[in-house]
Amino acid sequence: MALEMQEEQYLAFYKDSMLGYSKAYQKYAIRQLKQDGWITDEDQCAVTDRPNILVVEKHQSDQSIIAAMAQKPAYAVHFEYLEFVKLYKYSVPLFYSVPNGAASLNENIAATCVLFDAEKYTPNYCLGRSVGDNIPVFLNKGEDILIKFVLQKAFPRPEDYQPVNYRYPVVIYINFRLNMLEIRFDAVRFDPQFGKESYENLLANCLEWIKTNLKVDLFLCDGSNTIAVINGKKDESTKIYKQMMELSSGGSAELTASEERDLVMPFIGEIRELIDENEELFSRSAEISELLLNYLNEKEKTANYPYIYIKRVKPVETDSYVFKITFDYFLGRFTTLQHQTGTCRDLGMERMDDAIKYLCESGSFTKGDPV
Question: Could you tell me the pTM of the whole model?
Answer without folding.
Answer: 0.83
